[in-house]
């Protein structure tokens, strides 16, 4: 019986951790069979492809270091632009969404939340065809809230928190390992 309770506890804790995760990840492995045999990667901006909304320099540097480490952990090796089999590209953007909450269970009935989106793509270096892409989304901050349905919307002054480590870890865990 204690073994069953321990298993149930681990299962519930895992489910709770997954349910509370702040990162939502979607992947699309369109050309993943083509990844077989490909071993090296370089950043796409070395080939002239640049993000539409680049991150600030410090965040860009952090993202590149984490992607470098993550892809190496999956078996891929960095190379110079023309020698790479795979080009790595990223893009970011922000959007806001409105959330209504049940007034009987929460003191806040409405929140406008800013969410950050990060897309990571692996492209074939020879023809720029997509091999794999992943999209991560997480809440960055609350922009405004209402405490009841009749009150005005109050702006909230919260700093934007990108938290790249968690988002990138979730994305990189879904990159196919090199075979």
**What is the count of DSSP helices, taking H or I runs of 4+ residues?**
3
| Structural classification | alpha/beta
Low-confidence stretches: 1-21
Cα Rg: 20 Å
- CA-based shape: elongated
- Average pLDDT, rounded to a whole number, is 79
Order of helices and strands: HEEHEEEEEH
| DSSP helix fraction | 10-25%
Count of DSSP strands: 7
Distance between the termini: 42 Å
Profile the largest sheet: 7 strands, mixed
User: Hey, roughly how much beta strand do the residues contain?
Assistant: 25-35%
How would you explain this protein's 3D organization?
With 179 residues, this protein is of the alpha/beta class. The N terminus is likely disordered. The longest helix is centred in the first third of the chain and has 18 residues. It contains three helices and seven strands, in the order H-E-E-H-E-E-E-E-E-H. Strands 1, 2, 3, 4, 5, 6 and 7 form a seven-stranded mixed sheet that branches.
Question: Which descriptors would you attach to this protein?
Answer:
disordered N terminus, 179 residues, 34% strand, alpha/beta, seven-stranded mixed beta sheet
């Amino acid at each position: 019986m204690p073994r069953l309770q321990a298993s149930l506890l681990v299962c519930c804790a895992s489910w709770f951790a997954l349910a509370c995760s702040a990162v939502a990840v979607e992947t699309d492995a369109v050309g993943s069979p083509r990844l077989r045999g490909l071993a090296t990667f370089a950043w796409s901006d070395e080939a002239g492809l640049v993000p539409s909304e680049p991150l600030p320099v410090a965040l860009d540097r952090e993202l590149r270091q984490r992607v470098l480490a993550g892809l190496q952990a999956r078996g891929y090796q960095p190379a110079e632009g023309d020698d790479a089999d795979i080009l790595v590209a990223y893009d970011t953007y922000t959007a806001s969404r409105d959330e209504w909450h049940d007034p009987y269970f929460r003191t806040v009935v409405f929140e406008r939340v800013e969410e950050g989106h990060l897309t990571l793509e692996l492209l074939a270096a020879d023809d720029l065809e997509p091999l794999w892409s992943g999209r991560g989304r997480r809440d960055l901050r609350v922009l405004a809230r209402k405490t009841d349905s009749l009150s005005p919307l109050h702006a909230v002054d919260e700093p934007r928190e990108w938290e790249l480590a968690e988002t990138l870890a979730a994305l990189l865990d879904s990159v196919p390992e090199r075979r």
